[in-house]
Write a structure and sequence with these properties.
Layout: E1 15-20, H1 28-41, E2 46-51, H2 58-62, H3 70-74, E3 87-88, E4 94-97, H4 104-107, H5 111-121, E5 128-133, H6 139-145, E6 153-156, H7 160-182, H8 185-191, H9 197-206, H10 212-227, E7 232-238, H11 241-259, E8 264-270, H12 274-281, H13 285-288, H14 293-304
Parallel strand pairs: 1-5, 1-6, 2-4, 2-5, 6-7, 7-8
Antiparallel strand pairs: 3-4
Helix pairs in contact: 1-14, 6-7, 7-11, 9-10
Length: about 300
């Protein structure tokens, strides 16, 4: 599905693209880095932010040697400024906010620190902010994923374990969104005991804690919250487009049936041995191997996102 193209004008507030997924090792960081470089080549100002607070490595993939990291942001006194941590890379229009050192105090930031980072992501002086998230469904990761108005990009592979974990990640994101919307202990209690949104809605209808009018309102709002999520799916390490479409269709069917979420298939990255070579050399493959099929995959997804 091709999204409408974006007019090339400087943005007052950046468009945020959060790249997440339930399983580690699916290629989120490699995808985020190459996406940023490709968008930067189109003339858009991009800031890559490594939001993996425990095992960051975006700087390694980019071959960067940052002097400042997110640690500096968290330790800033007074008004915090994420832009001051962003450093220019060797790639056109691409700056980097390198991740933390992974020490305990920054791997588990206080609530106020996380809120400050979330707020500052939306204030960066850029056209596009790409946030590379950590693996899993920790609350920090989910909150960063939900900052994106487009509800982010989920990267997965064709394996069943990856499909299952992508589903669980998006379910956690939806439940986190519902939990933050209501701030109700009764709703939070129901969330912890229902595997699907349909079961959750049924539990609300049967709950004695709410009167009939409130039940109808809550059920309607929850459906609206689910339908407002439009995650984009990227299937990595596939042999061909057919395998990617099949993987996307399997996950999409489960999301529609159980969570009432309608995802969008963004594209795929074909299996290519140049990826390991590019990561080890610290040069994104869209630069080191621009004519390879996998680089064409990135270019097609950038076009579908509207950065033409």
């Amino acid at each position: 599905m091709h999204l409408s193209s974006k007019r090339f004008v400087p943005k007052v507030t950046p468009e945020i693209i959060a790249v997440g997924g339930g399983k580690g090792g699916v290629g989120k960081t490699c995808f985020a880095a190459n996406l940023a470089v490709e968008i930067g080549q189109k003339g858009w100002r991009v800031i890559l932010v490594d939001c993996d607070l425990s095992c960051s490595n975006l700087d390694t993939v980019l071959g960067a040697h940052p002097e400042r990291r997110l640690d500096h942001f968290f330790h800033q006194r007074g008004i915090k400024d994420l832009g001051s941590v962003a450093q220019q890379t060797e790639y056109t229009n691409v700056r980097l906010v390198a991740g933390t050192t992974g020490l305990l105090d920054v791997a588990n930031p206080r609530f106020q620190q996380k809120e400050a980072l979330t707020r500052e992501l939306q204030r960066l002086d850029a056209d596009v902010v790409i946030a590379d998230l950590g693996a899993g469904a920790h609350l920090n990761t989910l909150d960063f994923f939900l900052v994106s108005e487009s509800n982010g990009i989920v990267v997965l592979t064709p394996e069943k374990t990856s499909i299952d974990n992508a589903f669980k990640f998006l379910r956690s994101a939806l439940y986190r969104k519902i939990e933050r919307f209501y701030k109700s202990p009764e709703v939070a209690a129901l969330l912890r005991h229902n595997v699907t949104l349909r079961e959750f809605i049924r539990a609300v209808r049967e709950a004695e804690a709410f009167d009939p009018a409130v039940k109808r309102q809550i059920c309607g709002e929850m459906v609206a919250l689910a339908k407002s999520m439009r995650p984009k799916l990227v299937v990595n390490r596939v042999n061909n487009e057919y395998e990617a479409q099949l993987t996307s269709n399997i996950l999409s069917k489960s999301l529609r049936e159980h969570l009432m979420i309608e995802p969008e298939y963004l594209g795929c990255m074909v299996f290519d041995s140049v990826v390991s070579e590019a990561v080890n050399s610290g040069v994104p493959f869209v630069m080191s191997h621009p004519r390879q099929p996998i680089s064409s995959c990135i270019a097609e997804m950038v076009n579908r996102l509207g950065y033409i």
